[in-house]
Amino acid sequence: MRNIAFPNLLKTLREYVLMTAGLLIYSFGWIACIKPMEVAAGGGTGLAMIVSHTAAEMWGVDIRIGTVFLTINAFLLLLSGLTVGWNFGFKTLFCIVVASGFMALMEPYFMVHYPPSGDVLGLDDKLLTIILGALLAGAGMAVCFTAGGATGGTDIVAKIFHKYWGVAYGKVIIYTDILIIGSTLLVGYGLSDVVYGYIVTVVVGTSVDLLMAGSQQSNQIFIVTADYDRMAEAILHEADRGVTLIDATGGYSRHEIRIVMVVCYKRDAGHVLRIARDVDPKAFVTIASVSGTYGEGFRKLTQLR
Known about the structure:
- The protein is of the alpha+beta class.
- The protein folds into two domains: 2-214, no CATH class; 217-303, Alpha-Beta Plaits.
- It is built from ten helices and four strands.
- The chain has helices at 2-34, 43-59, 65-83, 89-113, 126-146, 154-165, 169-183, 191-213, 228-239, 266-279, and strands at residues 218-224, 244-249, 256-265, 284-290.
- A four-stranded antiparallel beta sheet has the order 2-3-1-4.
- Helix 7 packs antiparallel against helix 8.
- Pfam families: DUF2179, YitT_membrane.
- The chain crosses the membrane at residues 16-33, 65-86, 93-110, 130-151, 172-189, 195-213.
- Residues 241-295 form the DUF2179 domain.
């Protein structure tokens, strides 16, 4: 039992270390880069920034972003628990509390050290600064997601809408972000700030997708050739990739054919195509992108969370 428990303990410890590191990067991107530029943004953190900014500008009340972030997510988690069920997990709670803590610690420090322009990193360009902040926030989220964590916010709203109205998660998150950012025009933000906010949202989402897929992005290659046996052998031995032969019928000729299917990482696709060209220059080849591949030769299916 001890031999079994120890690896599990190390795995759990590694996950929480990764989540903590990801949340540190995530918080730095928001507090050190995006916040000083005073732009609107979507998601739970963006909403927290907007509430904090509005409270200070319109009512003279200083509310830390970390405090607002924690309050918003606590409310959403309570609402989710009452409507969808208490199944969001300890990791979600951990991520929300730790992210709130990091923001609460960073904000006073950077407020003291903000230059008049708000450009902490000295890039001297507002667009570059918010893009860098969005990239850091997205990278932090990706690390957190990889370890099984979640940062709450609009994800919780999406879960509720999906259960009761069947709306897809992605649509809810997109529409919520559009609504949050657009509504800032009513509380003193300018049109340019709203545009910057949409840029932040797009960059964060794109960077999360790219980093989550990363090296797992693959190509699925279909090769239609009369010399399928030699094609399969060449790919097996020269590219060291698995091959599947699929029985098919030509729609025009009605001849029985076999399709050589290969799934490989994108970095290996060029090698497979060169092999196909050398074996049969007249082969018909199609390539499709695959965002994730699991099984023999790739990431193990048991690693899915």
